[in-house]
Amino acid sequence: MLTSIRPDRDAVALAVSGLLGGLLLWVLGLHTQGGHSLSARWVTLVPLTAMAAAELLRRTAPRTALTIGTLALVADQFTWGNLATILMFTDVMYAAVLYGTPAAARRLPVATLLITVASTIGFLAWFHKPEALLIGLVIGLVSFIPALTGVSVRTHHSAADSARLAAAQTARLAEMDRTQAVVAERARMGRELHDMVANHLSAVAIHSTAALSIDDPETSRNALKVIRENSVEGLAEMRRLIGLLREGGEDDAPAAAPTLASLDALVEQTNVNGASSGLICTLEGAGDAVPDALPTPVELAAYRIVQESLTNALKHAAPGPVTVRLAHAGGVLTIEVTSVFGSRPGPTAPGSGAGLVGMRERVALLGGTITAGAEPDGDGTKIWRVRAELPVVERTMRE
Q1: 86 near 76, Cβ under 8 Å?
Q2: Is residue 149 part of a domain?
Q3: Per-residue pLDDT tens digits for 181-215
């Protein structure tokens, strides 16, 4: 508690300066009143000292300082008077408004104005002379003007604090937006990298395992051919992604996003890569069933879903048909990829589950739905079905 009422340096400086200045005026015999028969000259130092003590409390206890200062100012009127006492009171009044409670900041200017007006009217009625207006002017200068100045400074301080708070909040919001944007961009880059390269690397892994495990020159030759084709295509995809990540040089032309029109090539490539595993991939509904003008995000998401589903089939599907179906009805694009569920002979490629996560993220961003899992087929076998529904109306895309 003692620490909380300890005066600051400014208060000490004002108190010492006021006290020394008042002592100098007292030594020189300069008083605000010509003389007073009710007291000796030394009594003038009592309200001066009390006002200096009030100055010490101007910031830590402004209400107490104002009370002491008001009593000291009244007492000073019954002495020879000291100008330093009056000047220090103006600072105490100013500090009471500036550092006091909000209620005190509202009430003190009104109270001092009423006191000034009432005093002026009272002295005019008492003296019946125009000179009484000067007394009211002095009272206003000593009380109302310092209080009004304190209100003005306090208002500016409050506005500055509000501006700093708003700036800090804006900075925090900007940092949150930047962080979210970075996270979203990293997720998008991860999906693109996985979808573009996983297909090629899966084929490379499967066929390289076959070449190492089967001691047959023809098999090795075919495997190496597939490995080379997928390596070249994967390298091209990587270069395209690196080009997108660069800040933009003169030679970095933006690459076109894959479209549903290139699904034929994707299915054909899957047939080549999955031939050794007994996979036969077919595409249904990519012609008239799908409109020509689809929103770019929808078309890219549909292509990536098919690409990732074929990659998973290449990794895990049992020998048999792999069917890709596309349909468009009621403003919804439906993508369905089915393959035979079960174990298969020969090499397989490991999976991390990131592909399914990426597909769900793409669909969620577009406000669609997706399901993936094994289910029984009509002939007693099980199939793995991936089914996604993507809204294609403009309203949904804007939302």
Answers
A1: yes
A2: yes
A3: 877 777 777 776 666 666 667 677 766 776 666 66
**pLDDT one-digit tens code per residue, 27-71:** 998 888 866 556 788 889 999 999 999 999 999 999 999 999 999
Looking at 171, 186, 216, the residue that finishes a domain is 171
Count up the domains in the chain and report the number: 2
**161 shares a domain with 13:** yes
Measure the CA–CA gap between 323 and 168, rounded to whole angstroms.
56
Residues 23 and 128 reside in one and the same domain: yes
Q: How far apart are CA 173 and CA 110, in angstroms?
A: 41
Enter the tokens of residue 247: 């800040």
Residues of the chain with pLDDT under 70: 1-5, 34-38, 192-200, 202, 206-207, 210-215, 219, 240-257, 286-292, 344-354, 378, 393-399
Residue 299 belongs to domain with CATH number: 3.30.565.10
CA nearest to 323, candidates 375, 271, 262: 271
> Please, which contacts does 238-242 make with residues 24 or more away whose CB atoms are closer than 8 Å?
238/196, 238/197, 240/196, 241/189, 241/192, 241/193, 241/196
Distance CA 273, CA 227 (A): 9
Residues 142 and 264 in one domain: no
Cβ atoms 112, 144 nearer than 8 A: yes
Distance separating alpha carbons of residues 124 and 379, to the nearest angstrom: 114
- Spell 257-289 as b/e; 16+ CB within 10 A means b: ebebeebeebbebbeebbebbebebebeebeee
Angle, helices 132-139 vs 102-127, to 10°: value is: 170
Structure tokens at 222: 């075919």
